[in-house]
Design goal:
The protein has 141 residues and is an alpha+beta fold. The protein has a domain of 97 residues. It is 18% helix and 33% strand. The protein is built from three helices and eight strands; from the N terminus they run H-H-E-E-E-H-E-E-E-E-E. An eight-stranded antiparallel β-barrel has the order 1-2-3-4-5-6-7-8. Strand 4 and strand 5 form a beta hairpin. 13% of the residues are buried.
């Protein structure tokens, strides 16, 4: 060992870093704990008008509580009703996890997912091939 290297090693041993803490310095850091699943949002976080690209808003309102859960009603704006052929329908959604609502019946299959406090994704899928709509939404209030 060269003299400067020996001096540096001696200094580290005296300070305790090389002798006892070398393993701690050389050991890899423990893997980060997996992120916890997003916290459950209360039903009220889903309520209200949600708009996209200047369209009239999609509206989500609370329905009558039954069996301890409150279903939510979703109404499409007139332009989207015409586009989808679902004129005059109100869709009943239930909360399936902390950030997701899903349609009670599957015609069409609807999923409304909060991506943040002020943004969401609306996905609708019909029975026929190609009947799919994915619409990013943001709060309209």
């Amino acid at each position: 060992m060269t003299k400067p290297l020996r001096i540096a090693a001696s200094a580290l041993m005296l300070s305790g870093l090389l002798g006892t803490g070398a393993q701690a310095l050389a050991a890899p850091a423990p893997a980060a704990a997996p992120q916890a699943e997003q916290a459950a949002h209360p039903t009220t976080d889903f309520l209200g008008p949600w708009s996209s690209l200047g369209l009239e808003p999609v509206t989500i309102t609370a329905g009558k509580a039954s069996g301890g859960t409150t279903p939510l009603n979703m109404k499409l704006p007139a332009p989207l009703e015409k586009l989808t052929g679902l004129v005059g329908r109100t869709f009943v959604l239930r909360q399936v996890d902390g950030t997701t609502l899903h349609s009670v019946n599957d015609d069409p299959d609807i999923t409304f997912t909060l991506t943040s406090q002020n943004s969401a994704d609306l996905k609708m899928k019909g029975k026929k091939p190609g009947q799919v709509m994915n619409l990013p939404l943001s709060r309209a209030d």
